[in-house]
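We modelled the chain as a single entity of 273 amino acids. Its sequence is:
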Amino acid sequence: LRSVWDDVIAPSSSELDIRDEDSLARSIDELEPAGIINCAGLTDVDGCERDPQAADELNGFAPGRLASRAARAGVPLVHVSTDYVFSGHERRQLHEDDPLAPVNRYGQSKARGEGLVLDSGAKALVARVQWLFGGDKSDFVRFVRGRLLSGQEVPVVQDQVGVPSYTMDLVSQLAVAWRAEFTGILNLGNEGEVSREGQAQQIANDLGCTGQFRSVTWLELGRSAARPRRSVLDTTRIRDLVAASAPENAEVLAPWHEAQRRYLKRIEQETNY
């Protein structure tokens, strides 16, 4: 499935600033892309509270201008968004067409970006994701693994529930949606839900560790921005797309703990080289 991205050009933020409309226009003209995927964003939730203007520009207005440029060029666009456009729901999963109700400036700026992209006239897909792990740098899984293996206490937020999602699986899910020429809003993610403490305990189990966990609040971690307590995205649409177009690749819809186990094995292989 990932072969659809074989010819991707991924400029860094220093090479292409999506806030610079002239630079965007030149890049689109020069590269003549078959499609655009916007992964740029200010994801520091508390940083967005401190600098809401920067959040609005990078997460809201810049994606809107990018989408307008894509529309003029006749190029399809994927814009990556977040579960933080919702306030969460205590009992049920959140559907793509549920009303937006962000509780912080990060979510507000991402909601603005979604609206501007969808209203741009571009052939656009807004892909909502949450609780990502799978990069080469620090994420929650790498953080917890490092603390456990070094015998350190692990602080974990006690009152937040979501769906940990493996970026490699989401890339494959997105490839299915791309090939199906899906437009509109699409929730991506692995299956299931868990608290942060439950996720950390699963990491300990997979590593064969007896971890020491300390329940904390976001405020105790020095992070004052409000977060949705339970924001579990409903992924029925992407599951239906995979079932219809690539049923042999059901692994990309695996439960979060199975995906997390694959990631832990990948990290172990990296550290053994």
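As a brief sanity check on the tokenised model: The longest helix spans residues 52-73. The mean pLDDT is 92.
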